[in-house]
Amino acid sequence: MTTLAAQLAQWAAGLAPTDQDLELADRSLLDTLAVTVAATDDPIRQVAADLPEAARWATLGHVLDFDDLHMESTTHISVVTVPTVLAAGGGARAYLAAAGVMARLGTALGWPHYSSGWHATCTAGAPAAAVGAAVSLGLDADGIARAIALAVPGAGGVQRAFGTSAKSLQVGFAAEAGLRAARLAAAGATADLTALDQWLALVGGDPARADLSGPAVPGGLAIKVYPCCYALQRPISAVRDLLDGGVQPGDVDRIRLRTPAGTVQPLIHSRPGTGLEGKFSLEYSVVAALLDRYPGFASFTDDAVRRPEVRDLVEKVDIELTEGGDWLLTGTLDVELVLRDGSTRTTGLDLPPGSPGRPPSPEEMAAKVRDCAGPAADAVQQVTWADAADFLRTTVDRAPMSHAPVSASAASTEAS
Fold first, then answer.
1. Distance CA 11, CA 370 (A)
2. Is residue 156 part of a domain?
3. Model's pTM, two decimal places?
C-alpha cells in the first residue's frame, strides 16, 4: 500500500505550476510580506528574536492575524510555507508544492479535527513546511517523503493558544519543524513513511480526503480585509453594511446575530481584555465595527478593547447559534440592528470581501499593502521570490526595536 507521505511527495516532486498557480504564489508572497512588515513593531518581535529565520518570520507574519487562509482546510497556509521556503532558499514552485500539500493534508484532517480544538495551521503546517523546504533543497520524491515523516513530531498546536503569544509562536514552531525535517532528510536521515498515516488516524483524519487533482491550491486562498480571525470577517462586513445612512453607536439598542455554531469555533473570548483576545471575540468585533466603522490595527489594541463604551455595547449583543456548520463560512450570517427609535436594520451575508468567491481587486490588495507597510509599501510591491529572503533580513530583522523585552510578569498577565 502506498503511504500518504509517498503520494504527497510524488505530487510535490512532479508539480508543474500553471500561470494561475504562479499568480496565486505571487499574491501570497505579497500578502505575507505586507503583514510581516506590519508587525515589525509588535512586542512579539523581541520575544521571537532568538528563533531561527523560518520560525521568526512565521511568528511575526501571523501575530496580527491578517494573513491569508485556505477555507476548506481552515489553515493559514502562506504564513507557514512562505517563510519556510524563503529560509531554505526556494521560490514560487516550492511554495506551491508546500501550499498544495498543506491544503490537502488540512482537508484530510477535516473539520472534526479543527472543531475538536486542534490548530490545523500547525498540525497540517509542519509536514507541509517540510515539503516546501525539501523542494527548495532539491530533494527527490523519496527525500520529500522522508521529510514529511520526520516532521510529524512537530505537527501540534491547539486553539486554547488563541488570544496569546502562543498562537503565533506555535505557527513559527511548525515552520521550523518542517525546515529541520527537510534538512535532516537531506543529510540522510531515515524515517518510516507510515508515520504520517498513523498520526493522521490518531488525530481523526482521513487520507481518502486528500485529493491530489486540481490546481496547486484547490479552492484558492482567502485574503483578509480586517486584521483579526477569519471567523470575524463576515460579522464585521455585515455590520458595516448596515451603517450606511449615519447610524451612530448611541442609536443602537440591540445587536442580534444568528449564525451556525460551527462558524464561531475559534471565537473563544466573549469578553476580551486584550487586543489579542479581541481578535477572537464575536461580541467585540461587531462592537468595533459599530464604533470604528473600519476595524483596523487601532481597533485591536489593549486600549481599544478596554474602552468604556465597548463594555456597554458588548452587553447589547445577542447571539443565536443554530445547529451545525462544517467550516467558517457555513450558511448565512444574519444581523439585525435594533435602534432606539424602534426601527430595525437587517442583512444577511454569505461571503465576506476577500473570500475566494469575492477575491480582492489589485487596487484592494495595493490598499492593504499600504495599510500594512506604510512608507515601505512601494518596496514591498517590488519584491520577488528571488530577493524576498534578503528583503526580510534587511527590512524586518534589522529594523530598530521599538519594544523592550516582555518580562516574565507581563507574559504571565498576557496569557491569563
1. 37
2. yes
3. 0.93
* Whole-number pLDDT of residue 390: 98
DSSP letter at 376 equals G
Q: How many CB atoms lie within 10 A of CB 317?
A: 20
> Domain for residue 10, yes or no?
yes
Domain count for the chain, please give it: 2
Quick one: pLDDT at residue 411? 34
Residue 8 placed within a domain:
yes
Instruction: Report the 10 Å Cβ neighbour count for 390.
Output: 11
Same domain for 363 and 291?
no
Q: Are residues 18 and 131 in the same domain?
A: yes
Distance (Å) of CA 111 to CA 90, 280, 305: 31, 18, 30
Q: Backbone phi, then psi, for 255, in 5-degree steps? A: -125, 115
What residues are paired with 284 via a beta bridge? none
- Give me the domain span that covers residue 76: 4-225+358-397
What's the rounded Cα separation, in Å, for the pair 48 and 64? 14
Q: How many helices (H) and strands (E) does the chain have?
A: 20, 4
| Residue 285: closest CA among 238, 326, 349 | 238
Q: Is 2 exposed, middle or buried (0-12, 13-18, 19+ CB in 10 A)?
A: exposed
What is the CATH number for 391? 1.10.4100.10
Q: What is the greatest pairwise CA distance in the chain? A: 73
The pLDDT-based confidence of 406 (bands split at 50, 70, 90) is very low
CB 120 within 8 A of CB 203: no
Q: Does residue 57 sit in the same domain as residue 142?
A: yes
